[in-house]
Write a structure and sequence with these properties.
alpha+beta; four-stranded mixed beta sheet; 6 strands
Length: about 160
């Protein structure tokens, strides 16, 4: 190489199509891409499950989540001292690199229009997951598994006999 020629910097190309220039002969690496785009972020399914579960529970008209067995087990777990409510009960997700799909099982309050609750849950889940994770939510499927009737939570008096 002559004194008047300059060697072009080498370029490393990443899987996402962006490139990084590497300085030649300077002993330093010159990076042209912003720090926030260097590297990869992976979001676990459990993260999306918790976000979607919390978002669904925030909607008026949602009494509980999950099918009968999961609700029963959840009620037992919630009564254990030190136990925390499981936000992910009744939520299943599929998470890809850029997209997520969410399935939600709901118990709605009696008298609340189910289509309205389903629409509001869908909108709230999509908004929360996309805002917090940056993933595109391609669908939110909702299954209404039960309706909560007034008085269902009251403890019924149990007839006990002592011999």
């Amino acid at each position: 190489m002559t004194a008047t020629q300059e060697q072009a910097p080498a370029r490393r190309t990443h899987a996402n199509g962006t490139g990084t220039e590497i300085g030649v002969g300077t002993g330093r690496t010159e990076v042209t891409e912003p720090a926030g785009t260097r590297g990869r972020t992976a979001i676990a399914d459990a993260v999306v499950v918790k976000i979607a579960g919390r978002a669904a529970r925030e909607v008026p008209g949602v009494h509980d989540m999950g099918g009968g067995l999961s609700r029963t087990l959840g009620a037992v777990r919630d009564r254990v001292p030190g136990g925390r409510p499981q936000l992910g009960r009744g939520v299943k997700v599929e998470v890809g690199e850029r997209q997520a799909a969410v399935d939600v099982e709901l118990v709605v309050e009696y008298g609340v229009p189910v289509p309205d609750v389903a629409r509001d849950v869908r909108e709230n889940v999509i908004s929360a997951v996309e805002r917090i994770t940056g993933l595109e939510v391609v669908e939110v499927n909702i299954a209404v598994t039960d309706v909560h009737l007034p008085g269902d939570d009251r403890d019924e008096p149990v007839d006990t006999r002592v011999a």
